[in-house]
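Per your request, structure below.
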């Protein structure tokens, strides 16, 4: 097997986050799914954006956030995602390069605009996401950099992008490329809302051996296997996935690998400002540690520390020195 020259290459939504504070009444008045995510058309996004208060714009997207975290911890990372040739696309491209993440996917010249996620943060720190995927859901097989995928130790895929036919086909092709090069494939279910309508496709991909490392939370695990008992759901998933990681928010996380099951508490934090990106940074910490050959427990703890950092400020990208915090 050729030695990998890159730690992780990720595929996911190329999104610019637009974050604003709001009160509970705003959530109710606009019928938003508090603490969860919904998809919007470009016109719906324009309407909600017009009603929002003062906002902060920063590049986002689940897997892109994870790669920003990996780079911040000293890992080598690349990202494949579709942007348009517009202002938000330029922002996304600039931010990825500035963070030290390789991003070479050419922008679309025609079609929908660069994706954006309108994030409303309530006083309790909960984030309500309203995503207009735009160009990101136009990612095609032709946009794949096959040599880049084969050069990475881990291919990391996000569930948000697995729904539309075109990017799903690109992801399945990327899995073939990675496995042909004897690389690992990690997958995150991303959000409970992603499972509806995709359950059979997710299950088929997992049962066929397409995933070597699966990230999900408790709700996603239960929904995916249609169970009500978590232990039964974990047993069923672990039978098909070599490494299974379950995040439990303030209750910590569980890792199952080679018959070993390890549970850790959440990393202690002083306060919670915004939970946006907690799962993304947990995955970043786990994957960064995995690429360094760390144990399952160490990988879990690295993920917990990275997640703890990002929930103490606005936005889904790290601000503190993660490299110093996790000490990989």
């Amino acid at each position: 097997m050729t030695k990998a020259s890159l730690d992780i290459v990720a595929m996911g939504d190329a999104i610019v986050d637009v974050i604003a504070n709001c009160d509970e009444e705003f959530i109710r008045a606009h019928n938003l799914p508090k603490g969860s995510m919904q998809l919007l058309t470009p016109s719906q996004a324009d309407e909600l954006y017009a009603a929002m208060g003062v906002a902060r714009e920063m590049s986002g997207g689940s897997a892109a956030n994870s790669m920003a975290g990996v780079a911040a911890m000293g890992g080598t990372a690349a990202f494949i995602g579709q942007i348009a040739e517009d202002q938000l696309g330029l922002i996304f491209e600039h931010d990825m390069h500035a963070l030290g993440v390789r991003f070479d996917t050419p922008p679309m010249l025609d079609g929908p605009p660069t994706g954006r996620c309108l994030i409303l943060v309530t006083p309790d720190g909960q984030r309500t996401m309203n995503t207009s995927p735009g160009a990101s859901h136009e990612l095609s097989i032709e946009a794949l950099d096959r040599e880049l995928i084969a050069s990475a130790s881990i291919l990391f895929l996000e569930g948000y992008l697995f729904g539309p036919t075109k990017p799903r086909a690109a992801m399945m092709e990327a899995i073939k490329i990675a496995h042909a090069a004897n690389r690992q494939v990690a997958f995150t279910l991303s959000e409970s809302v992603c499972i509806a309508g995709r359950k059979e496709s997710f299950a088929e991909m997992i049962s066929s051996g397409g995933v070597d490392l699966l990230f999900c939370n408790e709700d996603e695990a239960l929904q995916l296997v249609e169970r009500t008992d978590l232990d039964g759901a974990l047993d069923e998933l672990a039978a098909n996935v070599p490494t299974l990681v379950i995040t439990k928010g303030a209750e910590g996380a569980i890792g199952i690998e080679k018959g070993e099951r390890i549970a850790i508490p959440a990393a202690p934090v002083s306060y919670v400002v915004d939970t946006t990106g907690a799962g993304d940074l947990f995955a970043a910490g786990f994957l960064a540690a995995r690429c360094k050959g760390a144990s399952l427990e160490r990988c879990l703890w690295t993920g917990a520390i990275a997640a703890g950092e990002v929930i103490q400020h606005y936005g889904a990208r790290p601000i503190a020195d993660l490299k110093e915090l996790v000490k990989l």
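The longest strand covers residues 15-21.

Regards,
D.
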